[in-house]
């Protein structure tokens, strides 16, 4: 499968393996990390962002790909749209069928509320389902929520909102056991002790996993729980606009992807759990994200008056697949490095400690392939770095890869690559939205009766999330949002359905001279080539 030049490079990698196994690379100092980030991390690339011209976070910088959506008109014409008919009425409307949405629905239903969960695709078609490596939680005797707190803040470059981190780490042990009670099967020692490993930036072995399909295991369990409860679910019906009465949220408009009709939902409280935005392909990066990850929640809530935070920081996962091209950008879990695989350049040399935080790791990889010109060239001309996966078998014994990384092993086996015998080629890929909508530790927003949970929110992880803290965050804050929205709904009288906020936003856009043909949310990415687009428009 590998080309001749790639095979030559692999020979060098194999030759250095015995020495590399003994080699110690120290962690970078704070100054070295900052310098590396400023020179090579895509967030720092000049000209890649712009300040928003409109809305509640006017002046904040964000990548052009996001700014194009925030500075866009609604898919709905608020002057003409008919809101006289209410198609669905509920206590709590949950928007998004991933880990945050499912957790929120369960807790809202437990609080006694009528719950309607709506999703863009099917329940469980979500980034949560794709998560591989694990979920953090301080439940070992040598660990504590305080230790976990310090790691999260350090990883986030000290920008994190303290009250949100506090909620994250304090709830974590309870979340691990709640998931287990629902049916999640974690990896365990024969005596029943949880198996835990390190992730980049963790001071304790705190990563709990279900092989390398932890998110799949969690999503399957939560989905079953939603289906087993009296929770109504509508699939293939993304939210396209919120409904606001003064400063209160009163529901949302959905778009039925099948019938192409709009649907009006009136709700006492609403929870946005629409996840991330990898499919925006910031700076042309490939992505690990699922097809529906187009950042809709923040874009729609921003129009309604919710502020955003840290949307100038994107997490590029250091190890996305760079070869074969069919899986370009797909995730190679950090667990591969946690288990001992090393990053090696074209000459067979290491150049960074493998468990630096992801931002630093990605910047080091980009430097190796650009300025230092030590990348391995693929047949398409792309450059990548070797991940010396066979080293895992050397360190942990034969069969360790198939046992700990069965999904990853199969992903490469489909292309006749045996990652237990040959290294795999990787390069950074767009993975996670570090920022999002501003919330407090009850998941409340600036708009009354509107809550946000999961990747759509920002502040928890500062400017860089550590591995395993997102699966944790979506359940911690999903549950908090569900419980609080469910309780609040008991005292809310259903409000009027209006689109006044959209009219006002359109006015602001017009005054700023924004092209009226720019519309958002995009709902699904458009991968048609330019000439096909033109042909189809004719
Ligand atoms: C490949 C991969 C591996 C990962 N591995 C890990 C890991 O090991 N550990 C970890 O902690 N984190 C990991 N992450 C990150 C983590 O999985 C996600 O950040 C997290 O699961 C997001 O959960 P969520 O519920 O906020 O969003 P999602 O799980 O993405 O769910 C969002 C839901 O909202 C729906 N939706 C979107 N727009 C709309 C709309 N307009 N209307 C209605 N519905 C909408 C989507 O279809 C989806 O159902 C990984 C992510 C990926 C992509």
UniProtKB/TrEMBL annotation:
It comes from the Bacteria. Residues 91-471 form the FAD-dependent oxidoreductase 2 FAD-binding domain. GO terms for biological process: NAD+ biosynthetic process. Pfam families: FAD_binding_2 (PF00890). Transmembrane segments: none annotated. Its cofactor is FAD. Residues 1-23 are annotated as: Disordered. Gene3D superfamilies: FAD/NAD(P)-binding domain, Succinate dehydrogenase/fumarate reductase flavoprotein, catalytic domain. GO terms for molecular function: oxidoreductase activity. Substrate binds at residues 317, 333, 431, 465. This is FAD-binding protein.
